[in-house]
Amino acid sequence: MEWGFPENFSTFGDSIDATYGAIFYVTAIAFVVVQGLLIYCIIRYRHREGRKALPIHGNTRLEIIWTVIPAIGVLSVAYLSASVWLDIKDESRFPGGAYEVGLHASQFEWNVTNPGPDGALGTDDDFPTRNALHVPVDQPVRVLLTAEDVIHSFFLPNFRVKQDAVPGMEIPVWFEAIAPGVFDLGCAELCGLGHYRMRGTLTVHSPEDFEAWQAEEGGVASGTAETPTVAAR
Asked: What is the pTM of this model?
């Protein structure tokens, strides 16, 4: 059983993990302190025979302390996470030179529109794949998310990517893979009775393998792929 995040394979995954760790430990410390004080007060000020409760009018110093310290903690976490969030979600900060691909979600599959050998999306040599996203390693990837019917959620756990796909909207999301491999692509939104089977794969290729795959698949889709010849007997 794996308790933590799966192994990271994206350029910004370490930043997300560090931010998550900071939030977790700040929250854990606050929980332990608050619950410790609560338990102490329950024991210290419990009912005892012959002891009369006395009214307390408050303590301004303590009230300032327990207000200021949590406020500083919350603002610190917000400041640390804001830059990470903007680098990932703010479209104006997306890196240039990205490989662009279209991804249309529907019940219950991922329909990918891949640019052909010209490398440009929206041209005549685009070709489709189903439940299979292919990208090159060490190059930013820009995915244009759309949805046909309900809200789906594009989820790449090994890349720390999770973004809703909403009907009527085109939502861009980006990531950059740091190593080749085959990874899970899932839907993290309950999108209907077939939600459990809405999954696919993300294949990260080396530059050479990606060019070969793109040329082969693009040729098959356009009907221009070379077919093997059989020698006459």
From this structure: 0.82
